[in-house]
Amino acid sequence: MTSDYMKFVGPRLKKARDAAGLTQGQVAKITGSSTQIISNEENARNGISIPKLFTYATVYKIGPAFLLPRHPLPDETTPEDLTIDEIVTIVETIPSDRLGLLKRVVEAFAQYEDDAADILRSYPSDDESDKSKG
Q: Smallest Cα–Cα separation from 46: which of 73, 6, 13?
C-alpha cells in the first residue's frame, strides 16, 4: 500500500530529477542505487528515508523542503521524533560549502521560532544575491 506521504514525494522526486536534466540511470550511478529503486520511489511504490531525500536534494541541487509535504501527516515521524544520530546523518549530506546556510537557518529558528520559516523565505537565496553582485 502506498502512503499519502509517498504519493506526494514520488512525483516531486521525478519533477526534481527532470529539472536537473538527469536520467534515472545517472542518478542511480551518482547515489549508488539502482534505476528500479529510483523508478519505484518516483512512482510511489517504495517508501524513502529522510536521509535519502536529502541525498536526492543534494544531487538535484534543490532545497530538501521541495521534496517534503508542508506539514507531516498524523502517522508520520515528526522532527521531535528524530534522534541525534538521524539529525547528524541528515547534516552530513549537506555539502560543506552550504553549512553556513544551515547555521543561519538554525539560528533563525532558535531566535524567531514559529516566524523563522517566513522570515527566511523573505530573504533572497544565496544564488539570487550572487547574481545581483555580478
A: 6
- Coil, strand or helix at 131: helix
Decide if 58 contacts 95 (C-beta within 8 A): yes
**Angle separating helix axes 24-31 and 35-42, nearest 10 degrees:** 110
Instruction: Render pLDDT for 51-74 as a digit per residue (tens, 0 to 9).
Output: 888 899 899 988 887 777 654 444
- Of 88, 25, 29, the C-alpha closest to 54 is 88
Say which CATH topology domain 1-74 has. 434 Repressor (Amino-terminal Domain) (1.10.260)
pTM of the model: 0.52
